[in-house]
Amino acid sequence: MLDVREVSLRFGSRTVLSKQSLRVDTGEVVAVLGPSGVGKSTLLRVIAGLLSPDDGEVWLDGRDITAVPTHRRSVGMMFQDEQLFPHLDVATNIGFGLRMLRRPKSEIDARVDELLALVGLDGFRGRDVGSLSGGEATRVALARSLAPRPSVLLLDEPLTGLDRELHDRLVHEVAAMLRTTGTTAVLVTHDPTEAQAMADRTVRLAQVV
Amino acid sequence: MDADRAALNRLPRWLLPMLALVPVAGIALFYAFPLVTLLARVVRPSSVRDAWHVPGIANVVWFTLWQAVVSTVLTMVIGCAPAYVLARYRFAGRRAALAVVTVPFMLPTVVVGAAFLALLPSTWHGTARAIILAHVFFNVAVVVRLVGGMWAVLPTDLTAAARTLGASPSQVLRHVVMPLLRPAMWAAATVVFLFTFTSFGVVRILGGVANPTLEVEIARRATQLGDVDTAAVLSVLQLLVLGIVVWWSARWQRRAATTFRGAAAPRRVRTARERRMVVGVVSATVALMLLPIVLLVLRSVRLGGGWSLTAWRTLGNDQVRPGVGLGVDPLGSLATSLRFAAVATVISVVAGAAAALTIAAARRHGKLLDVGLMLPLGTSAVTIGLGLLITFDHAPIDWRGSWWLVPVGHALVATPFVVRAVLPVLRSVHPHQRAAALTLGAPPLRAWWETEVRRITRPLLTGAGFAAAISLGEFGATTFLSRSGHDTVPLAIDTLLARTGEVPRAQGFALATILLIACAVIVVVVDTPHAGERQGVRSDARRS
Amino acid sequence: MRRLLAAAVALCAFAPLAACSNDAGPVTLKLVAYDSFPKEKTGVNTALDAFTKSTGIKVQIITAGDTGTMVTKAKLTAGNPEGDVMWGADNTLISSAIDGKVFAGTPLAVDKGDVCVNYDIAWFTKHGVKPPATLDDLVKPEYKNLLVVEDPSASSPGLAFLLATIAAKGDGWQQYWKALRTNGVEVSASWDAAYYQRFSGAAGSKGDKPLVVSYATSPPAEVIFADPPRTDAPTAVSTGTCFHQVEYAGVLAGTKHAAEATKLVNFFTGGDFQAALPLALFVDPIDPNVALPPEFTKFAAVPKHPYTLDPTLITTNRQQWQDQWTQIVLR
After folding, report:
1. Full-prediction pTM beyond 0.90?
2. Residue B396: is the preceding peptide bond cis (ω within 30°)?
3. Pair C279, C293: CB distance under 8 Å
4. Which of B7, B59, B530, C134 to pair with B445, CA 20 to 30 A apart?
5. pLDDT above 50: residue B387
6. CB distance B442–A45 less than 8 Å?
7. What residues contact B239, with CB distance under 8 A and at least 6 apart?
8. How many whole angstroms separate alpha carbon C165 and alpha carbon C181?
């Protein structure tokens, strides 16, 4: 369970987050909506530990992770432009997190295959990441972030910028995958219909005055 | 968008200083320190006065200047046509033509000098014409790459718009194209001037004793006549001129390059007239680029009016009289050059990788290191060699006789090329990559390693290739630093070609051919775009 | 990347093996000499082998360019030399070498000779011209376009000839050379090229110049190496054009084998080595008691009054004279 407790963050003189709280139950998908610039991505980064809040705390599964570095938080993240590692192939990308956890090769291979099946990309193991289409890359990015079984998955507008038809298709597929795996997730988006289709609950972030 | 500004995820404090240590220490010890020593030697008023009184010194300075200016102007004029054709037109064999034009630039200067010695009749040897011609040959690639590179991104609609407004083709050229190309032209002209001003191998082989430039005279005075003081004064004078030129040209280039909007893809040849022009320019350029090289190879197998492999067969043995050699061991020099190249490549790769990683990570201070590393490129090789020679000549740093000073000198010149090959790839790594790795459980150092360091293996290989080619062909600095009996191939070629005998000359051509092949192979292998270079450019794939 | 680093470390570990290393066993002395010092097959080399056999000290010959370049390099590396013993600094350069602290102790004179203009007898007979006898003759119109000299900045005989003209003409030497230039003098970068490529009198040469600056011992060399054998010399020497040369050998300062090096230098002045000198290096031994080969006594002209110059005068002015000469003749 994710519990963000009144985090505040200032960039110089500009206040981006002011006593922002958020609770996400285990297995719940919460969408964070709001106009651009309101601090949605910033909130995600605070949860991930990529930014440190000036005030407030972040608790995950009963543990205060406010001072814990990113790599030990068990927080997965999907970025707006996939951020697949271009020098590694599909399988190595997906297995990256497990490699960091020093899992045995057999376990990693099995998990990679499992996820490839989940996202519908069987046979893509050895593919060069640069040769993937937009939809394929998004799916590999999702598989990669799910592989190490994070306590919470953060999605930073992962489907923004895709063309209409692909976008609509992926919205349903990603929503289904999140449900099937029972992932706790926070989705940032500016599109209310996307929030509706993918999330159990929507939270609107208000502009900080 | 610094994804990891949190102090939690910062890289360990010791990382950057440790990385920066090798390149910074290297530049400080082997470049800055010798330069300071050189300056200190010259600062005495007596040395400047004495140098000025050397007979003929003013002529040398004047000759160096005017041959550089003439070479530059001629290169710019001659290079524009191939630059235009290769940038704006698409045709079969375009890539090959581009490669042919670029290869001379990557060749060692001794090879270029040897090729022109083979090409030109003996009445041209030792003349300024020969030197200028060789310079043009060598530097056309600069114009084609720099000016052509900019010409290629000029939107086609710009010229079309000018034409709809009533401009004739020559008016379009004068009022639209040339002004827009100006920054590139200044850049090219500066580079060509710098290279021709500090040209060593070409002038030494083609100019003989009658037409030395500053660079050649510095080497001659220091290593042959033992007049190090005058050599030092000339070096500093040369540095001054170079500094002024670079500063002046930077002012001109600061006219910001305008950003162009609109497509500018090279187009197919449409009219018969265009076809004639393209074919004419390309074939003339390719022929001119290949002719000296072909003649170099041919002259190595021609003796006494007939074909003969004697020069090649006797490369391992060159006795003038029984027991007495020419003082050069061609095959031995090959072995020496290869050994030095191996060591120099390793040094350059290590220093270059460390430097590139530091520059990419350090932002402001990184820029300083970047500029600092480029300085040896702007300093003439002879000055670097002279500096090293007169600096490390007393205990505890008496390294004069050390074999490793030569590869260090090579590495000084080669490391910037490694950095240039690696840095763009490093800079293309999106900052989110590291964030992604962090969220996947990689500790900060590991995240950095996986997303940045591992990305540079391929460009490092390219950089290593450049370093090896540069080390094999390095001439100016090696003239000062090599020990007797341990000549490198360029030195051996120079000695052989200085002889007027047929066989030593042909041997010189043969050795130059070997060096030519080695460098050309390295450059072609290393400069070909790899499939992996599609890394980091994913935006267009999203549309599918 | 780790593999690359490992390979780099491995290469660096092996690289020092590429450099020369002195073994702790028998001492090998490095003898630095000019390019025309033979590395094998001559009497000098046989004598050095005998030296090795009797003392256990090996001698490795390193050639370092022409004499001028060799001495310059020695001065630039004084105190951290490239070898242990240097052979061949001559009287035109020796003071400069001593001032440059090149030697440990005093260098010893090891041989002598004269640098003179050689002429091709057959050519002059055929053209019915009297061969030149003095320096003044060389500027006369009948000898136009016939002379090859060497660049005094790059060649020891070239420098010697220049000094001869300075000794003869004093301050008027620059006028003399201007006249020589007008008279079509050709300049060669080295003695090898001048003698074997440009001189018509050298065996196997395709050159067309019947006058060349060479040594007084060149005519005997032509007889000794003649194939088929001959009993008369094809060339002779203009005795009024000679400059006296003395060559020295010495222990280089900073050598790690000073004792062995001194042994070698002393060996150079010993009878066996001196006797081998004439036929190997074509110089006269410094030791007057050593017998010369018969060809030498028969065909070598011994000039009665070769030109000489005070060595300190040479040291002070040599560079300026070389530069002025370059300006007058080459530019």
Report:
1. no
2. yes
3. yes
4. B530
5. yes
6. no
7. B379, B383
8. 14
pLDDT digits (tens, 9 = 90+) for C267-290: 999 988 999 998 888 889 998 888
| Domains of chain A by residue range | 1-74+150-209, 85-149
Q: Which one of A9, A11, A64, A70 makes the best mutation probe of the B interface by having the most chain B beta carbons within 10 Å?
A: A70
**Domain C113-244+298-330 falls under CATH 2.60.40.10:** no
Contact B222, B228 (CB under 8 A): yes
Overall average pLDDT of the A50-71 stretch:
90
Contact (Cβ atoms closer than 8 angstroms) between residue A155 and residue A78: yes
What tokens appear for C149 in the block? 């000299």
Tell whether B321 is within 8 A of chain A (Cβ): no
Q: Per residue in C44-102, pLDDT tens? A: 999 999 999 999 999 999 988 888 889 999 998 888 898 999 999 999 899 889 988 99
More confident residue, B537 or B7: B7
Q: What is the pLDDT of residues B164-214, one digit of tens each?
A: 766 777 877 887 788 888 888 888 999 899 999 999 999 999 987 788 999
The answer to whether C1 contacts chain B (CB < 8 Å) is: yes
Chain A residue numbers touching B540 (CB-CB < 8 A): none
Please give the ipTM for the structure prediction: 0.83
Share of residues in chain B with pLDDT > 90 (%): 41
| Exposure of B349 in the CB half-sphere (CA atoms within 13 A) | 27
Rounded average pLDDT over C159-174: 94
Q: Is residue B453 within 8 Å of residue C1, measured between CB atoms?
A: yes
According to CATH, what is the number of the domain B38-254+271-299?
1.10.3720.10
Average pLDDT over residues B269-281: 88
pLDDT (0 to 100) of residue B257: 54
Sign, CA torsion A69/A72/A73/A75: positive
Q: Average pLDDT for residues C177-202, to the nearest whole number?
A: 89
Residue found by looking up tokens 């006369």 in the block:
C140
Contacts of C290 (CB under 8 A, 6+ apart): C271, C274, C275
Total Cβ atoms within 10 A of residue C67: 25
Fold assignment, C20-112+246-292: D-Maltodextrin-Binding Protein; domain 2 (3.40.190)
Q: Where are the beta strands (DSSP E) in A27-151?
A: 29-33, 55-60, 63-64, 75-78
Burial profile A64-93: b = 16 or more Cβ within 10 angstroms, e = fewer: ebbebbbbebbbbbbbebbbbbbbbbbbbb
One-letter amino acid at C137 equals: D
The number of helices, as runs of H, and strands, as runs of E, in chain C is 13, 9
* Shortest distance, CA C38 to any CA of chain B (angstroms): 4
Report pLDDT for B262: 66
Taken as a whole, chain B contains a residue count of 544
Q: How far apart are CA B442 and CA C93, in angstroms?
A: 69
Chain B contact probe: residue of C67, C70, C190 with most B CBs at under 10 A: C190
Asked: is A1-74+150-209 a CATH 3.40.50.300 domain? The reply is yes
B chain contacts of residue A132, beta-carbon cutoff 8 Å:
541
Contact check, Cβ <8 Å, B225/C82: no
pLDDT score, position C329: 92
What are the sequence ranges of the domains in chain B? 38-254+271-299
Query: Is A85 in Cβ contact with B451 (below 8 Å)?
Result: yes
Grouping H, G, I as helix, E, B as strand and the rest as coil, residue B322 is coil
Supply the DSSP string of B98-113, one letter for each residue: HHHHHHHHHS-HHHHH
Q: Where are the domains of chain C?
A: 20-112+246-292, 113-244+298-330
If one counts every other C-beta atom within 10 angstroms of the C-beta of residue B437, the result is: 27
